[in-house]
């Protein structure tokens, strides 16, 4: 399936290292755990997450009196799912869609992470589900951003509301809301600027956009989706921290998982930021966006 092929790089490196480890150590001892830590850190799982995981594994080894390292593989995958899912029954995070009303989703993230592509892919998915989608080109700063969103709109057959380059992003978002209402749309997907050269400016701009949305629709935005590029590793984590200080991020779209051997970043994000990963990008095609499923993800790593 999609997860298996999209995660082939991470799986190739991760599961072969784990298999190697298990082959090298018959006994589960301190050295075994040191090497395991190293493998997990290299997969970008994140130092804190790795420490917690290894502590829990050690306890589990005692509890079940595990001696043979080959028996530990299943325990590792179970623990990874547990870490991801926490106490919750469900490991899949659904989008906060308003059943009988306009849903407004704001996309934020640094230039180049795959924001426009993810908006296009999600617009396609929602349209396929029979929803009427409108896009609004809120990145009025970067040259070409408006046109790029427009191309995606044409590709997936949804309308794009836009102003000219350099205009006020809050004004175009306002127009987007009016247009979505007058067309009886189900979902409005808002692109925003992603220049991080001037962080304070960008964060002010995002707050203003958010205020305009809230004034028009008090329950909105129904999602603030932060788009992160999995190939940037720990950088993605620091971007997530910056954006969640400025806006209330409700979910993450993690792109380009197909392009990295360090898919462990998914676990680091969940553990260190406590923001659910809602979607993952597994390629450049319009259909390469998957609802994130922790179980499928972890089993995909070991498959
Ligand atoms: P933006 O600046 O954040 O809007 O980024 P774009 O949407 O323009 O994407 C930047 C590049 O990343 C483009 O070449 C996309 O095709 C590529 N891209 C986006 N998502 C994915 C993904 O999930 N996998 C891969 N392999 N490439 C992606």
Automatic annotation (TrEMBL):
Keywords: Cell membrane, Cytoplasm, GTP-binding, Hydrolase, Membrane, Nucleotide-binding, Receptor
Main location: membrane
SUPFAM superfamilies: Domain of the SRP/SRP receptor G-proteins (SSF47364), P-loop containing nucleoside triphosphate hydrolases (SSF52540)
GO molecular function: GTP binding; GTPase activity; signal recognition particle binding
Domain SRP54-type proteins GTP-binding residues, every copy: 276-289
Membrane association type: Peripheral membrane protein
Keyword Membrane listed: yes
Pfam families hit by this protein: SRP54, SRP54_N
Chain positions recorded as GTP binding sites: 109-116, 191-195, 255-258
Role this protein plays: Involved in targeting and insertion of nascent membrane proteins into the cytoplasmic membrane. Acts as a receptor for the complex formed by the signal recognition particle (SRP) and the ribosome-nascent chain (RNC).
Known partners and oligomeric status: Part of the signal recognition particle protein translocation system, which is composed of SRP and FtsY.
PANTHER family in the cross-refs: SIGNAL RECOGNITION PARTICLE RECEPTOR SUBUNIT ALPHA (PTHR43134:SF1)
Protein name as catalogued: Signal recognition particle receptor FtsY
Organism: Paraliobacillus ryukyuensis
Lineage, top ranks: Bacteria, Bacillati, Bacillota, Bacilli, Bacillales
GN (gene name): ftsY
């Amino acid at each position: 399936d999609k997860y298996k092929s999209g995660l082939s790089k991470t799986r190739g490196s991760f599961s072969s290292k784990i298999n190697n480890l298990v082959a090298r150590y018959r006994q589960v001892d301190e050295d075994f755990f040191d090497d395991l830590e190293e493998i997990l850190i290299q997969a970008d799982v994140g130092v804190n997450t790795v420490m917690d995981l290894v502590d829990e594994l050690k306890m589990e080894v005692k509890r079940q009196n595990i001696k043979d390292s080959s028996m530990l593989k299943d325990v590792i995958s179970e623990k990874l799912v547990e870490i991801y899912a926490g106490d919750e029954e469900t490991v899949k995070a659904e989008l906060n869609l308003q059943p009988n009303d306009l849903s407004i989703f704001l996309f934020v993230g640094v230039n180049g992470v795959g924001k426009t592509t993810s908006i296009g892919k999600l617009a396609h998915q929602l349209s396929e589900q029979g929803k009427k989608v409108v896009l609004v080109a809120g990145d009025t700063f970067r040259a070409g951003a408006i046109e790029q969103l427009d191309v995606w709109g044409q590709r997936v057959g949804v309308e794009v509301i836009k102003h000219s380059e350099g205009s006020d992003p809050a004004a175009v978002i306002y127009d987007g809301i009016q247009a979505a209402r007058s067309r009886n749309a189900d979902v409005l997907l808002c692109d925003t600027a992603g220049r991080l050269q001037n962080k304070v400016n960008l964060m002010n701009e995002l707050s203003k956009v958010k205020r305009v949305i809230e004034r028009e629709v008090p329950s909105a935005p129904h999602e603030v989706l932060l788009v992160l590029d999995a190939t940037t590793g720990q950088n993605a984590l620091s971007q997530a921290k910056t954006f969640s200080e400025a806006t209330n991020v409700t979910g993450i779209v993690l792109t380009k998982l197909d392009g990295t051997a360090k898919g462990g970043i998914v676990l680091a994000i969940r553990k260190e930021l406590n923001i659910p990963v809602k979607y993952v990008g597994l390629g450049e095609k319009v259909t390469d966006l998957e609802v994130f499923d922790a179980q499928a993800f972890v089993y995909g790593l070991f498959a």
